[in-house]
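Researcher: Go.
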Amino acid sequence: MNNTNSAVTLLTIILGFLMLLSSSIFIVTEGEVSMVLRIGKFITENDNSPVMYRPGLHFKAPILDKVVKLSTKIQSINEQATRILTKEQKPVEVDYFVKWKIVDFEKFYKATIAASSSRPDLSNAVENQQAEYFLKNNVADALRSIFGAKNLHEIISGGRDNILHELRDKSSEGAQTFGIQVIDVRIKKLDYPREISTSVYQRMRTKRQQVANLYRANGEFAAEKIRSNADKEYRLIIADAEKEAAKTVALGEKQASEIYDQAYSQSKELYQLYRKLESYKKSLSEKDLLLIDPKSYSFFNEFIKLENKSSN
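Model: Structure:
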C-alpha cells in the first residue's frame, strides 16, 4: 500500500513538474514578436520599454506571466464600395486596399485594448479585427477629407498619384495613435453612382470628341499644307521644264535656220523655186477647183514659163 501511494505521489510530482515546465516555456514563431505581462504590467528594459521576445524558445514565470503575441508581417485591408461625397456633394463609390504593419507594439496593444473595453485590462488578448476597424475608419475619414475638398471633374481628370500620396499621409497621421504604420494606400476602383454615370460618361465623350476634332483639324491643315507645297513644286518643275524646252527648241530652230541659209544660199533660184512649189502644194489640193488666169497673178508666173517652154 505504501508502495502504491509512493508511486502515485511520484507520478503526481512528475506531472506537476511537467505542467510547471510547460507553463514556463513559450515559443515565438517567425513573423511574430511577443511581450510578457507580469501581474498586468509589461516586463520592461532599463529604459522602461517592454521586452520584445523575438522568434525562438523563451522562458517565463508560470502563473504570474502571460504572453502577448503580435504579428510583425505586413497586413492588408480590402474595402469595397465606400461611398464618398465630393466638394459639390456628388457621391462616388471607392474600392481601396491598405497595407499596414505594427511598428509600436506597446502602443498598438494598449490602444486597441483601451478602445475595445470601457475598463482596459492588459491581460486580454489582442484581436487584429479591432485594429482593422479603427484603421478602416481612419482611412475613410482621410478619403472624406480629400474628396470633400475636390470637385468631381478634378477627381476624374487625373492627379490620382497626388490623391494617393495625400491619402497615405493623412492615414499615417491617424494610424500613429495605434502604433501602426500605413505603408501604402491604393484605390482599386472608382465608380460613379448610376444617377450621375450618364453625365460623367457624356462629359468624357465630349472631351474625347474635342480632342479628336482637334487632331482632325490639325491633320487636315497639315495635309492642305503638304498639297499646297506639292502643287507649288509641281508648277515650278513644269515651268523649269517648259523653259528648258523653249530654249532647246529655239536653239534647234536657230541651228536649222543657219543650215537652211547655208544650203539655200548656194542656189537662190532653186530656193525660190522650191518655195513656190511648196506654196502651190499647200494652196492647191485635189478637192479644190479653181478657175484662175495665171497671167493675172505673178504668183503663177512659173506656170507661164513652163507654158512658154513647152510651146517653143
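Model: The chain is about 55% helix and 20% strand.
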